[in-house]
Structures are given as C-alpha cells and as structure tokens.
Amino acid sequence: MGFATFIARKPVGMDLAFSNAATGVVLVALKRFMWLQPQPQLTQDPAEWLGDAHPLVEQLGSADGLASLQALADSLCARPVASLPALREFLRAYQQRVLLPHELPAIRTAFEYAGRNELRELVALDQQLAGDPAVREIAEASQRVGQAQLQKLRPLRDERMVQRYLHAVETRQAHGWHTLVYGLTLVLYSLPLRQGLLGYAHQTTRGFIHAAARSLKLTETDCGALFEELCKPLPGAIETLVTKAVA
What we know:
Blueprint: H1 21-35, H2 66-75, H3 84-115, H4 119-129, H5 133-136, H6 139-153, H7 160-170, H8 178-188, H9 193-216, H10 220-231, H11 234-246
Helix pairs in contact: 1-9, 3-4, 3-8, 3-9, 3-11, 6-7, 6-8, 9-10, 9-11
C-alpha cells in the first residue's frame, strides 16, 4: 500500500485511495451526488472533512509536536509514544476507550435523531456529552471542528434540522460536537450509517499514523501494515454497534 493512503487531505478531483471497498462505495455515491447539486458541496467523503483536524489528531500538529501525543497517551494509560510498538499500543487504547465506546455511538445516535428530525433529542445528547470524561480532553477542538463544518452547511436554508441545530449552537444551547455534526452530515447527504462509521474510523486511524510517521521515522511498509492491522476488526465492531441500535 502506498503512503498516499495515509494523507488525510487530497486536492479536489483526485481519486481517493481507500483500502476498504465499503468506504469506496460511500465515496462513489457522494461523487455522483455532488454532480447533481449546487453549492455547497462536500468535496470528499464526510470523514475527509475531519482531515488532520480530527480533535485528537490535530493536537499532534501543535508546537509541542509529539508532546501532545504523550499527554493523550497518558490520559489513555498508554506508554509514551516513541516507537512503532508504542504507537500501536496507543492506537489500540484509543480505539477501545474512545472510538468504539464513545465516538462511534455518538455518531450513530446523532444519525438516528437527525434522520427522524428530532432536534430536542439531538440537543439533549449534545448537552450530555459535555459531561463525558472521554470528551473533556478534546472538548475545545471537537467544538471547533464541528462548528466549522456547521458553518459550511449554513447555506442549506431548506434543511431545517441543520438550521435548527446551528441556531442551538449559536445561542449556546448546544456545543456542536464534531461527532454529532458528522452524524448529521451523513443523513444530510443520504449516506449509509455503516459505511459512514467505517469511513470515520479509517480516517482517524489514518490521521494518527500520518501524524506520527515522520517523527517516528516510519516506512511505507510500517504505515500500511499498522493501518491494516488496526482496521481489520473494525467492520465487525461497527456491525455489532449498528445491529444493537436497530434491535
């Protein structure tokens, strides 16, 4: 697998390489959708608007470099990220303690509320997340990323759910967490929940690897193998999450 697979942002029009075929389905559907729509348009899979600005990943781009990663590793009770094995341990901790139990369920629930136009429930979930310890470490960045995406959706005047949630954020009734905005975006563009969750998980994993690759001097082979290893169990975990929600 080439190193380009791990670059979060790509120029508009460039083919995006994803290792999982299911994520490719989302991209194809979205590209077809874009050809039929006026402004505003998503130029990529919704997971791509997170890019290196994913609330956790973006902290790795600070002036302190890997110092931010060390702080995150400490919060996840992982050892300092100074080698490939340590990065693997950190990413597994992130998946098990943040991604799977917190971020993906939040996206799923926001997707369900948005699909049923249940603003009150979405705002209640938003407020509930403010007290979640897993969100506390990334609260400022999460709101910044989520609110920025909401502003991009502002021109969609006919989308009442978008406008009402945006109003709730602007009047400080809600925070605009990135996970909730992501779930709302999936509904807005009629994208499947399973593929959306998988795309998000792939993007965050790819972002972490990309952020750490240079400092840790990882090779293309290292990056590709680590990405495949970490993403292998994700489809099964996501299927369980989605099935549990339906049941």
